[in-house]
Amino acid sequence: MKKEVLNHVNALVLQVLYRSLRVLYKNDSRVRDEIDSWDKNISFKLVCGPGGAVLALRRSERVGFRKLPRAQKADITMRFKSVEGAFCVLSGQKSIADAYAEHLFTLEGDIYKTMGFVRCVEFAEAYLFPRIWSRRILKEIPDRQLAPLKVYALALLENI
Q: Is 83 exposed, middle or buried (0-12, 13-18, 19+ CB in 10 A)?
């Protein structure tokens, strides 16, 4: 696929991921507990390659986290080296652990604090991908506290 198409797909997946994490914060106690344990006002940025799509978040007391402007400096930045590498992870072709082992991204910030964010993303993947797909990218598939279709519906329909 062309780089521009992959970048658009990455941007769409990041939007679905963001909205799903917001839904899971409200409806899955494990995600809520994880996010509530983060430092107050910590920020995360996920960058999908040079010139690629970006998801930037800051922890918020009231709603778990809020989106930040793309240019905002973050405490922790996961920067994929290529749009294609980001696509492989965001589309569920590779796990974040495999991407880390293959040096597909760089990490700026505290790796320990990053793990909480990665755990939340893995919970979201368990809801968003079919179980047979999740088995390939997750070491352990967590039990779901609500139906995946409900997560999709709330993520797509809720005014977040």
A: buried
pTM reported for the whole predicted model: 0.88
Number of domains within the chain: 1
Quick check: is 148 in a domain? Answer: no
112 occurs within a structural domain: yes
List, for residues 63-90, the tens digit of each pLDDT value.
Answer: 788 999 877 899 999 999 999 999 999 9
List of residues 6+ apart from 125 with CB closer than 8 A: 92, 134, 137, 138
Instruction: Return the HEC string of 92-153.
Output: CCCCHHHHHHCCCEEEECCHHHHHHHHHHHHHHHHHHCCHHHHHHHCCCCCCCCCCHHHHHH
Q: Is residue 36 part of a domain?
A: yes
Domain hosting residue 34, numbered range = 3-141
